[in-house]
């Protein structure tokens, strides 16, 4: 009978001392001198932590870790914040693999973003409007100045005041309401326009009242180098850099 177990192939062989013997060529999943060792037994002796899976690599074992862990035995927690997932000034905190909810928005496993008051979302990517309560009276229009984290009311020509609650006395609109241009814009009297004024906007905004952010990532399609990702905001743009790069433009 064959000396090799579990359907192993027995071949003649010469030992180092010159005597004749045999060698077993084993079939998976067996190994050992006579093919008597089941590979799962070897894998069972390797303790992969944190849900890691033990795999065979030739005659040795390795641990295949989940995306949240690393190390020979999956013993070390990956820091999900290393990729800087939070935008618009959000602060990243590692959750150790536990997801959580922030402002009713489900965030990815491994981290959550503490957002500034004007942003929300799993990565602070959604701009919040403070005009939801509609505080402007007498058909005034509410606009939000993100740079100062406050709101302004654009009043009809017959009203003025912080909330358009005071009748005007005939002065021009820039005098009555110098804050009509939001996000750092400057009011200029312009009698050729129906509204009687125009706004000189900051480089990052546009619109009648400078209320709309400019998409600088579209205007300048490649400000982020080395495969960095460009994200626009009211303050300009920011670059999410690829691994191995850093700096304002991932240079």
From TrEMBL:
Q: Which domain of life is it from?
A: Eukaryota
Q: Which InterPro entries match?
A: EGF, EGF-like_Ca-bd_dom, Notch_Cell-Fate_Det
Any single GO molecular-function term of the entry would be: calcium ion binding
The record, for SUPFAM superfamilies, names: EGF/Laminin
What does the record list as GO biological process?
A: establishment or maintenance of epithelial cell apical/basal polarity; heterophilic cell-cell adhesion via plasma membrane cell adhesion molecules
Ordered alphabetically, the record's keywords are: Disulfide bond, EGF-like domain, Repeat, Signal
GO CC terms in record: plasma membrane; protein-containing complex
A UniProt-annotated Pfam family: EGF
Q: List the disulfide bonds.
A: 26-35, 65-74, 115-124, 136-153, 155-164, 201-210, 241-250
Residue ranges of the EGF-like domain? 1-36, 39-75, 77-125, 127-165, 170-211, 213-251
| Keyword Signal attached | yes
Q: Which PANTHER family match?
A: CRUMBS FAMILY MEMBER (PTHR24049), DROSOPHILA CRUMBS HOMOLOG (PTHR24049:SF22)
Q: Which protein are we looking at? A: EGF-like domain-containing protein
| Organism in which the protein naturally occurs | Adineta steineri
């Amino acid at each position: 009978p064959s000396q090799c177990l579990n359907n192993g192939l027995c071949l003649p062989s010469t030992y180092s001392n010159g005597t004749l013997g045999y060698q077993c060529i084993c079939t998976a999943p067996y190994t050992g001198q006579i093919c008597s060792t089941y590979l799962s037994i070897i894998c069972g002796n390797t303790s992969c932590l944190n849900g890691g899976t033990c795999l065979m690599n030739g005659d040795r074992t390795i641990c295949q870790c989940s995306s949240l862990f690393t190390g020979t035995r999956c013993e070390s927690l990956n820091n999900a914040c290393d990729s800087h997932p939070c935008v618009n000034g959000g602060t990243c905190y590692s959750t150790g693999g536990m997801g959580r909810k922030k402002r009713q928005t489900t965030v990815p496993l491994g981290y959550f973003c503490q957002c500034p008051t004007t942003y929300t979302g799993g990565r602070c990517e959604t701009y919040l409007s403070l005009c939801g309560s509609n505080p402007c009276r007498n058909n005034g229009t509410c606009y939000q100045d993100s740079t100062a984290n406050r709101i302004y009311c654009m009043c009809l020509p017959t009203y003025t005041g912080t909330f358009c609650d005071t009748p005007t006395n005939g002065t021009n609109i820039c005098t009555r309401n110098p804050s009509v241009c939001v996000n750092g814009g400057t009011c200029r009297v312009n009698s050729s326009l129906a509204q009687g004024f125009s706004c000189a906007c900051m480089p990052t905004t546009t619109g009648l009242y400078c209320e709309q952010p400019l998409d600088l990532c579209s205007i300048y399609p490649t400000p982020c180098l080395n495969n960095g990702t460009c994200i626009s905001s009211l303050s300009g743009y920011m670059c999410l850099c690829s691994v191995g790069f850093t700096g304002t433009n991932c240079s």
